[in-house]
Amino acid sequence: MLHPYTSPIFAPVLSTATNHNAIKEDLLSRWLLTSEKGLVVLVFSAKWMGSTYLFESFMKDIREAAPTPFALDYIDVEDDEEIASQLGVSQLPTTVLLKKREVVDMLVGPMSRKKLMARITPHF
């Protein structure tokens, strides 16, 4: 299930799709389409992970400091294993950066705010 702070870019998918598989396919398509215009950051985690909430605060800070806006979405792998598998996510947390329909970076495991910023910033 998507995080309650899902980017508004993806919100219409939830109200228009009628089944879970259609939602997954539509989300992936929208992420790829959005990545043609700019950076898309996908954070794969699980709600039972304590580091998820800390990671969210890091991402909020990065989003506020970013030189250009970017799409940000949180995916709970327990609810969306198929999407995680399609993008090669095998460890939590994993942050996938999409740009121009390609995975430009994959950040695996927990990391500091400073390290996250250093890895994401070059992609703006």
From TrEMBL:
Protein known as: Thioredoxin family protein
Domain Thioredoxin residue range list: 34-120
One matching Pfam family: Thioredoxin
Origin organism lineage: Bacteria, Pseudomonadati, Bacteroidota, Saprospiria, Saprospirales
SUPFAM superfamilies according to UniProt: Thioredoxin-like
Source organism: Neolewinella lacunae
Any one of the GO CC terms: cytoplasm
MF terms in GO: protein-disulfide reductase activity
Domain of life: Bacteria
